[in-house]
Amino acid sequence: MGKMRLQDVAPDAGERKSTTIKIIDLMSKRVISAEPHFTVARVRGLMQRNRILAVPVVGPEGEAVGMITATDLMDDLKDGTPISQIMTQRVYKAPAYNEVSVAARMMLKHRIHHLVVTNDQKVVGIISSFDLLRLVEDRRFELKNAARRGEAG
Fold it and tell me: Helix (H, G, I), strand (E, B), or coil: what is residue 64?
């Protein structure tokens, strides 16, 4: 069985909405970020208080210089360890005005669950695989209701 794409479950081209969904439409705009000197304890606290699983690490200009995830913090780390010592330095980013399919492809290709969203290299949001799942669920709901309307008419 081949890969399923969002357009494979969408209505035919004649019924498709003319708007494309952009990353900015789905991303979390309230970004909780950290700085390289933050400690493991501080970042753990940020994640727990905000119920998040990933935190971009930003430099002085607001640019992404790393990423910390809940998985990174599972190891037996000393609370005072600076996150610069354990953060993932390869940050996957996408511009806010790209189509959401770009984010999905990047996540699949790199096997990641969070993508930093940028505008002029500055962090402006974060999009997760859960955000993409919500889009699919919303689309499924639209299709189900459209089918019911078609049956009624």
Answer: strand
Nearest CA-CA partner of 123 in 90, 92, 85: 92
**Cα 71 to chain centroid, rounded:** 16
Could you tell me the end-to-end alpha-carbon distance of the chain, in angstroms, rounded to an integer? 34
Tokens of 39: 């400690």
Q: How confident is the model at residue 146 (pLDDT cuts 50, 70, 90)?
A: low
Q: Tell the residue number behind the tokens 């610069």, with chain if given.
A: 84
Report the alpha-carbon distance of residue 142 to residue 150 in Å, rounded: 12
* Rounded-to-integer distance, Cα 132 and Cα 107, Å: 10
Is the distance from CB of 7 to CB of 46 less than 8 angstroms? no
pTM of the model: 0.76
